[in-house]
Structures are given as C-alpha cells and as structure tokens.
Amino acid sequence: MQVPQDGEDFAGQPWYHGPLSRQKAEALLQQDGDFLVRASKSRGGHPVISCRWRGSVLHFEVFRVALRPRPGRPTALFQLEDERFPSLPALVRSYVTGQRTLSQATGAVASRPVTRQGPIRRSFSEDTLPDGPAWTEPLRARKRSDSQPAGLQHMEQPTEDHPGSGASTMPASALPRTGSDSVLLKVPVPLGSIADSLRASDGQLHAKAPTKPPRTSSLMLPDASGRPPTYCELVPRVPGVQGTPPGHSCPEPEAPWWEAEKEEEEEEEENRCFARPQAEVSFCPPDNPFFLLGSQNRPLETEVLHTLHGLFLEHHPGSTALHLLLVDCQATGLLGVTKAQRGAMGVASGLELLTLPHGHRLRLELLERLETLALAGALAVLGCAGPLEERAAALRGLVELALALRPGAAGDLPGLAAVMGALLMPQVSRLERTWRQLRRSHTEAALAFEQELKPLMRALDEGAGPCDPGEVALPYVAPAVRLLEGEELPGPLDESCERLLRTLHRARLLARDAPRFREAAARRLRGFRPHPELREALTTGFLRRLHWGSRGAGAPWATRLEKFQRVLSVLSQRLEPDH
C-alpha cells in the first residue's frame, strides 16, 4: 500500500478501509449508494472507490498524477474523469456532497460512506482472500500483472508488438490475469499510461492527451459465467489539453481561489467603471448537504459533537485559526468574491458593501455569524460534563485560539471577537470553579486572557484598537454593522457621540483599505491547504444546522438565539449549581 503524502493524508478518514479485497468490500456494501475507499492489491495498492449501484458493486480506480514539489502547490492531483483535486478527501467530499456521478457510463452516485471498524490493516496479508484456482498461480505470474509504471516496464511484451507500443494497446489475450479477476473482455486504461500522458515537469502538466477513449461503453460487461464486472473503466479528461499546439504546455493546476483571484481582480480594476448595484448579495453558501451532518439531522447530535471534538483536537490553534480566517474572509466577502457578485453589488469587496444601503443582508449575516460562533465556543466548554480539569482544558483551548487569531498572528479580528464572546458569555463566566482551575493549572493562558485579550476586546468594541492591514488580515466590523443596523450606543450622550464618530470614521477607513486587507489575508493563506471537514464545521450554515437541526434552522434568528441561550443556561447550572 502506498504511503499517503502531503495532501493525500486520508488514512484517518472513516470511509478509508486500507488494504481490502474486492470480495470483502462487496460484502460491506448493502444498499445502493453505499461506498468505501480501499487499497486494491490488483491495482498495486492504489485507492479504489467501491460503490453499490443498481444492485451491483462497481469499482473505480482513482488516478493519481504526481507533480514536481513546489511551495504552495500539491504534490499530486487525484482524478476520476472530470475535475482534478489536490487530495483524495477533497475528491470524495465533492462527489458525495454534490451527488455527482462517479463515471458518465455507469451513472453511479456515492451517497453513504461505510465506516471502517477498527484500525487499518497494515498489509494485504492480513486480508487473505478465499482459496481458489486464481490464487494458486506462482508469485512471478502475479508480479507480471502489476499496474504500476515500474511493473509495466518488466512486463513481457509479445513478439508481434511494435516497439514503443504502450500497455493500453496490448491485446486482451496477452494481458496477464489478476488474482481474482475474471477474463477481461475489455482492457481498462492502466495507470501507467495515464501517468505517461499526464507527465509533470516543473509543476506543469504537458499537452500530451490521453489515449482516445473507445466508442463503446466504458463499463466492462460480465463474462459468460455471469460474474459481476471487476473494474469500471474511467476516461479522464484533462482541461485545456485538446487543441493545444505542440510544444506548448498546459496551465498549472488551479490554485486555490484565495490565491488565484488576485490577477482576475487586477484585470477588472483596469477596465472598471461605475455600475449601479442590482441586488443585495450574500456570501454565505447555500445549505447543501454537509458531509458531517447529512441531509437531515437533529439538534446537537452526540455522534457529530464527538466527531467535532476529535477534529479540533487534531489541529493545533494556529491551524484552526487559519481555517477560521479562510471561512471568515469568505463570509465577509473579502476573498472568494465572484465576478458576478462584484457586478451585482457595484463594489469589489464586502468591506465596502457593508457600508452601503444595499449591504443590509450582508450586515445581518455577519451579526448572525458572530453570535453563532460564540455559541459554538460556549458549547465547547459547557458541554464538558466530565472532570473539572476537562472544562479548564477547554477554556485554555479557547484562550490559545484567541491568541492565534489576534493581530500580528492570523489577524482575524471577527474570529477573535467570536471566541472572546464565548469566554465572556454569562453562562461561561459564572463557572467560578472552572476559572479557578484554569488559573491553577494553566496560569499562562489565564494571564494572557486577563492582561492581553480582555483589554484588546474592550478597545475593539469601542471602535478603537488595531486596524492596520500589516498586522490585521480581517478587521473587526461589528461596531459599524450594529450602528448601521440602528442599534443605539450605550453610555452617556457625550461619550456615545464621540464613539459614534469614531466608529463611522473607522468604517470609512476599512472600506478604503479593502484591497490592502485582501492582500494581507491572501498572504497569510498562501500555501495553506485546509482540512475539508474542519473548514465545513466553521461555516455559518453548518453551525446553524448543528445547533438547531435541519428543521429548526429555518426559524427566525431571534427565536433560535433565545432557545439556545436557555439551553446553555441549563448546562451551566448543571455544571456548577447556584448555592
């Protein structure tokens, strides 16, 4: 089995079963849409997606195209037929959440992962197949059926083959049979030929196109014995290869949208003229089925909460801060703004839009996101029903995350405000024994919270605090948003007027410096490859569904907030009852 490298670290995914025979994989897939990913022995340990569809189990080998390592680029691309992905989890997540067909010929859709039970097997010897005639062949004969490029070089070529002919042109009668495969009526495109046609040099894919696909169906038919097909033949399509003149290389793999959009925006800036805004714009993606939740879910499902707990424990605060910065930048409209969105709102970013009358929808979304993240942080502490030290460790984790989000670090001030909102929430701040344990066991974190984070948050709420794009990637816009939505400022009249002028002046500066903030955020995220599930778990739509369920998520925001606040109050009283 190949060892995952860089972006292909998929051994921890629940749907990955490691070395697993075809027969055992088929026994695990019971209903249409069930799928798993395994390492196939007959495919040299390469990942194969096994999926039950219309009563049969189909197997799809995932093509892996190695690239020359470069900073900020993946070391390999993963592909079935159409789109290429920087990692296998990204490929699986895209096909499952989008309900995309695994191949055009079969129309198979993978919808329900079959989770692995127990640790991953280390080798195929731990997954012995039933005895049979096919497995009594000598080891040398089985070696000749290797689908790896190295194995193809040692494969004996028939005397009638022309020199230089690839494995894809070998007649079916000359192809050695694999261990449990029936006689192949059609030869699938081997991985070696794909790797040759998608050569990587200096991180670029060359313009040599794959072998022309046959006109017949790409699904192998069963043999005369009626046994099911073995592997489905995929016809990978390489974007931009067809029609490329000889000697010209294809473009490099697509960079993440937060890195690739800068040149596009610069081109638009040169030809930009004023356009009247057409409609209000939302930067929150639609609530598509989430990989961790499914299409329907109840509020605060225990299994999902345990999965999220383990997911956050796997990432250190710095990594979580970058994930939060990425999602916050998208929710604010600082990064990931499409050309159509820029045309509809008449400005280049959400920092400008939120100061305009037609930014009402964006302002409401940002306020909801701030409160929803704070509720999630409070739940992380109040949901710890175990020992006192466990709750103190949860407090320490939030403090460390806030330190990783502060100016000079990730520079995500809305994320910082959400974490501080969780720590300062009445249901959390009243836990005297928990805070005492924090000061006793994690003194450094307690001091940082009291001496650095609380004064910083107080200054930000008053419309002051740091806002230089050099140390801040995403500025704190909540005071201006609340003011523009008609909320009254607290305090005496003279102080509130001064604070009003300061907040409005800060909002004008933020809109003016939006391009500089965008550059600062992209610079911090350069080369960053987010974990798909952690990134999903930090989106507003996911948290909305997690907190209130698929039915309650559509209720008015004020109603949802009131109900969840009561839930947190009950949890807080159970942990430390009032005397």
Considering the chains and any ligands shown, give keywords for the structure:
22 helices, 579 residues, disordered N terminus, five-stranded mixed β-sheet, single chain, 10 strands, three-stranded antiparallel β-sheet, globular, alpha+beta
Strand-helix topology:
Blueprint (H helix, E strand, L loop, with lengths): L15 E4 L2 H7 L5 E6 L7 E7 L2 E6 L1 E4 L9 E4 L4 E2 L2 H10 L14 E2 L25 H5 L5 H5 L37 H7 L2 E2 L2 E2 L51 H14 L31 H12 L3 H16 L6 H7 L4 H4 L6 H23 L5 H18 L7 H11 L2 H4 L2 H10 L1 H19 L16 H7 L8 H20 L1 H12 L6 H6 L2 H13 L4 H19 L4
Parallel strand pairs: 1-2, 2-8
Antiparallel strand pairs: 2-3, 3-4, 5-6, 6-7, 9-10
Helix pairs in contact: 8-12, 11-12, 11-13, 11-17, 11-21, 11-22, 12-13, 12-15, 12-16, 15-16
In short:
With 579 residues, this protein is an alpha+beta fold.
What this model shows, in words?
43% of the residues lie in helices and 7% in strands. It is α+β, with helices and mostly antiparallel strands and 579 residues long. Strands 1, 2, 3, 4 and 8 form a 5-stranded mixed β-sheet that branches. A 3-stranded antiparallel β-sheet has the order 5-6-7. Strand 6 (76-79) and strand 7 form a beta hairpin. Mean pLDDT is 76; it is low at 1-8, 126-229 and 239-254.
Shape call: globular
Contiguous runs where pLDDT drops below 50 for at least 5 residues: 1-8, 126-229, 239-254
Strand content: 5-15%
Rg for CA atoms: 28 Å
Mean pLDDT: 76
What percentage of residues falls in helices of 4 or more residues?
40-55%
Oligomer: single chain
* Largest sheet features: 5 strands, mixed
Count of DSSP H/I helices:
22
Distance between the termini: 60 Å
Structural class: alpha+beta
Number of strands: 10
Pfam families: SH2
Organism: Balaenoptera acutorostrata (Common minke whale)
Keywords: Guanine-nucleotide releasing factor, SH2 domain
Domain SH2: 15-114
